[in-house]
Amino acid sequence: MPKLYLFILLFNLYGVHCFAGMEILDTLDIYLRKSATYDRQKEDRIKMLHKRVAQAHNDMALYNVYNDMYESYSSFKYDSAFIYAQKTLVQSERLKNSSLIVNAKCNVVFCLLSAGLYKEAFDGIDAIDISHADEKARMRYFFTRWRLLADISDYNHAKPYQNNYVKKAHEMVDSMKVHLKNASWEWYYIDGLQQMKEYKYDESEYSFKKLLKDKYLSNHVRAIVTSSLGWIYKLNGDNQNALNYLAEAAIYDIQSSTKETTALREVGAILYKNGDYNRAILYLQKALDDANMYDARQRKIEIGNILPIIQQDRYKAISRQRNTMLAVIIAVSLLVFVLICSFYFIRRQMRKLKEARNTIEDRNKKLEEGFVELQEANKIKTEYIGKSFAINADYINKVEKLYRAIDHKISAHQYEELQRSLKESTLIADRKIMFADFDETFLKLFPDFIENFNKLFDKKDRKLPENTQNLTTEMRIFALTRLGINDAERIAQFLNYSVNTINTYKTRVKNKSIVSNDEFEKRIMKI
Fold this sequence. Notes:
Blueprint: H1 2-7, H2 24-33, H3 35-55, H4 59-73, H5 78-95, H6 98-114, H7 118-126, H8 135-155, H9 161-177, H10 185-197, H11 201-212, H12 219-235, H13 239-255, H14 263-273, H15 277-294, H16 297-333, H17 335-411, H18 415-423, H19 427-445, H20 449-454, H21 473-482, H22 488-495, H23 499-512, H24 517-525
C-alpha cells in the first residue's frame, strides 16, 4: 500500500464497479446524474480532515493531516491542493526532515503541472535535493519528474523537443525500476505509461490489461489505466473500443470525484464525430465544469477549442429543425386542400396505372408467345436446313451419276439403252423418299402431332397412318400449315397435287372436325 502513494494520489473510494449487462454510455449517464452525490461524499471526507487539524498535537501529526488534505484535493481542486501542498512544505521544513521536504515539494510541483504551469513546475522539480532523502521520497521524486516530462511531451508536439522529453522520462522509469519488484502492479503501471509515450502501443496494451487484473487497484488508478487504453485504441483507429474504455475511465473518475481528467472530454469528442451532438455537448460541458472547478488551464483550453464548434453545429441543427417546423406549420394549413387534390390525382393515376399495367401484361404475353414462336421457328429452321443439306447433297450425287450414264451412252451411241433407262426413272420413288424424310423430321419436331391432330375429330373419324413414322396426306397438308406454309399453291407443288385437290382435302378434313372451320387451323398452330 505505501508504494501506491508513491505513484499516484489515491482516495478513500468504494471499490470496483461492474458494468456488465448495460450499455457503457447508458451507465455513464447514470453516474453523471450521481456525480454530485460523489462530490458531496468527497467534501464530507475533507470536512472530517479539517476537524483533525485542531486535533493535531505536534508538528508531525499536523504534517500528516496537511498531506492527507493535499491528497484529497490534488485531483479535486487546484487552489485548495496548492494551499495544502504549501502547508506540507512549511511543516516539513519546520520538522527539518529531508524526506518530508522532498515529498512536500513534489506535492507543490504536482499541483503546478496539473494546472498547466509547466515552467514553474520545472523550476520547482529542479530545486529539489534528494541526496539525503529515503527510498520512498526518492521514488516520489522520480515519479513526479516522470509525470512532468510525460505531460510536457503531450503538450509540446514540436520535434526534437518532444522526443527529448520522452527520452528523459524513460530515464526516470529506469531509476524507479531499480526500487520496484519485478512484475508488481507498480511495475506494470509505470511500464505501460512509458511504453505509451514511446508509441509502443502493443506492449503498453499488454501492460495495462495485465494491471487491470489486479482486483485491489483503486478506482483512480483504474481510471488512468482505462483512459490510457482508450487513447491507444483511438490512435490505432479502433473508435468503438476507444469509446468503451474512455467511458469506463470517466465513470471511475466520477466515482473518485476526479476533476483533473481527460476521459470525459475524449468521449464527447468521439461522440461529436459520430454525430451524437446532444450527448457530446453534455459530456464536454461536464468536462469543462470539472476543469473550471479544478482550475486546470490546459484542460479548459482543450475543451474550449472543441465545445464552441459542437455548439455551433448543434445551433445549426436546431436552426434547421426550426425552419423545418415552420415549413411544417405552413404545410399543415394547406394539408386538407393538398390531400383532396392528391386523392383525386392518385385515383386518376391509379386508373391509368391499372390500364397501363394491363397493356403491359398483354404486350408481355404477346412477347412471350412471340418468343416461343421464334424459338420454335429457329428450331424448325435448324432441323430443316440440316436435313435439306443432306437431301440436296444426295440429290446432286444422283443427278451427277445420271449425267455420266447419259453421256456415256450417247458417246457409245446406245440410244435404245438410254431411252430404256430414262423410262425406268426413279422419280416417283425419290418423291416418296422425300415425303418420308419430311415426315421423319416433322415428327421429330412435333412428336405429339398425330395424337393431337386426331383429338380434333370424333373417334370414328380418327385415322392413324400405316407407319407411325409417317403422316397421312391430310396430316401432311396440315403439318405444312403448322410450319407456317399457308399458301395452297406452295403446298400443292410440294405434294405434287393440284391446288383444287389441296383445297378439297382441307375442306373435307375441317368438315369432319369437332371444332369450327375458323378455329381448326388455330388449334393446329397450338400443337
